[in-house]
């Protein structure tokens, strides 16, 4: 009797795993279908042929401008593959952060040309942050609207959680770390993130800054305003965790003055 029940349970478990896999595959297909159009598939083939990636798995995260997938390089290491939407992209808001950037003399208007510029902007910003010693995913390669980066996660391919989903042992210490990162980004990398919040920070034995496509150079006309906004977002989040923070205006003023040449 017990043997029959055990056998029945094994069959039920197997059927349930199959149903879950079909649902998972269907969900991943919907995500991929909305991002990987034929031109992007050609870009991915180029990256495969160049030896940047050999496999592409499910989505790690989805966003308004791009999806990030876990890829595998030829050595078997996990990499992050960020694919920016082109056919369904809303690009009007992007121009605020790229027009006037001396690295892009001619800013395209049509999404099919603007999105590759936007992807290149994130690549360049990641490189500046990385060279300044700030923890970001190291950029590994770029082709049109596909950016390959260091994977932030464990050896089993599990991505690191967002800061907002982590229970911090010392919120005060982490708050100070993030303010130092903002200051270092401004002074050493010459950048203002311009969209920093608990949603754009991963946690892997400390904070890792992500999603830097909108980050602007120190000389941008709105750099000071964006800097204040970043600091305000961070202070608001940590105040909810019980941290007594300095006024964001005071912190912003200090960083701006310390960054003056």
Structure description:
There is one protein chain. The chain is of the alpha+beta class. It has two domains: 32-150, 2-Layer Sandwich (Phosphorylase Kinase, domain 1), CATH 3.30.200.20; 163-258, Orthogonal Bundle (Transferase(Phosphotransferase), domain 1), CATH 1.10.510.10. It has helices at 2-35, 38-49, 95-98, 111-131, 171-187, 223-240, 248-258; strands at residues 55-62, 66-72, 78-84, 139-143, 146-150, 191-192, 201-203, 207-209, 216-217. The strands form three sheets. The chain has a five-stranded antiparallel β-sheet, with helices on both faces. A hairpin with a 5-residue loop joins β2 and β3 (78-84). α5 runs antiparallel to α6, α5 runs parallel beside α7 and α6 crosses α7 (248-258). The chain is globular, with a radius of gyration of 21 Å. It starts with a helix and ends with a helix. The relative contact order is 0.10.
Short description:
This protein has helices at residues 2-35, 38-49, 95-98, 111-131, 171-187, 223-240, 248-258; strands spanning 55-62, 66-72, 78-84, 139-143, 146-150, 191-192, 201-203, 207-209, 216-217.
SSE pattern, N- to C-terminal: HHEEEHHEEHEEEEHH
In CATH, the topology of the largest domain is named Phosphorylase Kinase, domain 1
Globular, elongated, flat, extended or rod-shaped: what is the shape? globular
- Please state the structural category: alpha+beta
Helix content: 40-55%
Q: Output the radius of gyration.
A: 21 Å
Strand order of the largest sheet: 1-2-3-5-4
CATH homologous superfamily heading of the largest domain? Phosphorylase Kinase, domain 1
């Amino acid at each position: 009797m017990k043997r029959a029940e055990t056998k029945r349970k094994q069959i039920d478990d197997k059927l349930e795993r199959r149903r879950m896999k079909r649902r998972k595959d269907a969900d991943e297909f919907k995500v991929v279908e909305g991002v990987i159009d034929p031109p992007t598939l050609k870009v991915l083939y180029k990256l495969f042929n160049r030896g940047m990636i050999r496999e592409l798995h499910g989505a790690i995260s989805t966003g308004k401008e791009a999806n990030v997938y876990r890829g595998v390089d030829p050595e078997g290491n996990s990499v992050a593959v960020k694919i920016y939407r082109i056919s369904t992209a809303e690009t009007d808001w992007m121009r605020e952060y790229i027009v006037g950037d001396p690295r892009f003399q001619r800013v395209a208007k049509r999404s099919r040309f603007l999105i590759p510029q936007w992807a290149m902007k994130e690549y360049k910003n990641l490189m500046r942050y990385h060279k300044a010693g700030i923890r970001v995913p190291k950029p590994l390669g770029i082709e049109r609207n596909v950016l390959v980066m260091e994977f932030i996660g464990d050896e089993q391919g599990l991505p690191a959680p967002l800061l907002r989903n982590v229970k911090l042992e010392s919120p005060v210490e982490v708050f100070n770390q993030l303010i130092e990162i903002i200051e270092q980004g401004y002074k050493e990398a010459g950048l203002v993130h311009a969209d920093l919040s608990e949603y754009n920070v991963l946690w892997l034995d400390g904070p890792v800054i992500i999603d830097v496509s909108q980050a602007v150079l120190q000389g941008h006309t709105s750099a000071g305003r964006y800097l204040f906004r970043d600091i305000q977002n961070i202070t608001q989040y940590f105040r909810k965790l019980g941290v007594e923070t300095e006024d964001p205006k005071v912190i912003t003023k200090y960083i701006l003055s310390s960054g003056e040449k």
